[in-house]
Design goal:
By secondary structure, the chain is of the alpha+beta class. It folds into 2 domains: 29-98, Carboxypeptidase-like, regulatory domain (Immunoglobulin-like), CATH 2.60.40.1120; 118-234, TonB-dependent receptor, plug domain (Ferric Hydroxamate Uptake Protein, Chain A, domain 1), CATH 2.170.130. 15% of the residues lie in helices and 34% in strands. The protein contains 3 helices and 18 strands. The protein has helices at 2-24, 151-158, 231-234, and strands at 28-35, 46-49, 52-57, 63-68, 74-79, 83-88, 97-98, 118-120, 125-127, 136-139, 162-165, 168-171, 175-176, 179-180, 184-187, 190-192, 203-209, 225-230. The strands form 6 sheets. Strands 10-17-18-15-16 form a 5-stranded mixed sheet. A 4-stranded antiparallel sheet has the order 3-2-5-6, with no helix packed on it. It is elongated, with a radius of gyration of 25 Å. Mean pLDDT is 75; it is low at 102-133.
Length: 235
């Protein structure tokens, strides 16, 4: 009888431990909304957990919903044009991410060696020397650029391999079977059709992404990408 009793007790303990383990491993559901700097919803942004991409994306209203393991530490959002933003989960079940809010701003280092400069690649900043394809960059704070009459003139004269034709920027004669493929235009993290409304004097920086440097934008970046940050955004 004692042996049977011990066995029953042992089985009970194992069952309780198994139930507790299942409860501890139960996934947590996190929901939230993703907005850009203009407080507009970002569509088709990819949800990341601890640096790994998931199959979850934001809907037409910028909302997302995802189940994560209880030991997950960080949730991130990957966007085309606005970059990546991450936040600690800390047991929260609702996490909204606003790309218009920056947690911190670093002052520029005046003693940075050539090739060590940070370059915005659309989803983060990398060292210029580590890029597989050179990114052309214009520092708009240089007073000499204010003399240009338009952004198109500024880019064509300062960046080799870029031409402006019929209202479109063509980088390194990029083309497919249908003809020339225009560059994707991004102004302060937002896709735009043209830069006509921008004055050269208001430009903080211009970056021209070519080849593999523009691959992160998928098919949209086939013809390259031109990123402009105004002086207001660069502050």
């Amino acid at each position: 009888m004692r042996i049977k009793l011990y066995i029953l007790i042992l089985l009970s303990v194992l069952c309780i431990n198994n139930i507790n383990a299942q409860k501890n491993n139960k996934k947590i559901t996190i929901t939230g909304t993703v907005l850009d700097a203009a407080k507009s919803p970002i569509v088709n942004a990819i949800v990341m957990i601890d640096g790994e991409r998931t199959n979850s994306v934001t809907d037409s209203k910028g909302n997302y919903k995802i189940k994560v393991k209880p030991d997950a530490i960080k949730i991130g959002i990957f966007t085309f044009g606005n970059g990546i933003k991450e936040e600690a989960i800390n047991g929260r079940t609702q996490i909204n991410l606003n790309f218009g809010i920056s947690a911190s701003k670093k002052l520029p280092d005046q003693n940075i060696a050539p090739g060590e400069e940070g370059v915005n690649t659309g989803y983060g900043s990398v060292k210029e020397k580590n890029l597989t394809n050179k990114i052309s960059k214009i520092d708009g704070t240089n007073k000499k650029y204010a003399s240009y009459s338009s952004i198109s003139e500024m880019i064509q004269r300062e960046v080799s391999g870029v031409r402006f034709s019929n209202g479109e920027y063509i980088i390194q004669d990029s083309k497919n079977l249908a003809g020339p493929v225009p560059a994707l235009l991004v102004l302060d993290g937002v896709y735009v059709q043209s830069f006509d409304s921008i004055s050269p004097s208001s430009v903080g920086s211009i970056e021209v992404l070519k080849g593999s440097s523009a691959a992160m934008y998928g098919s949209r970046g086939y013809g390259g990408v031109i990123l402009i940050k105004t002086k207001i955004q660069n502050k």
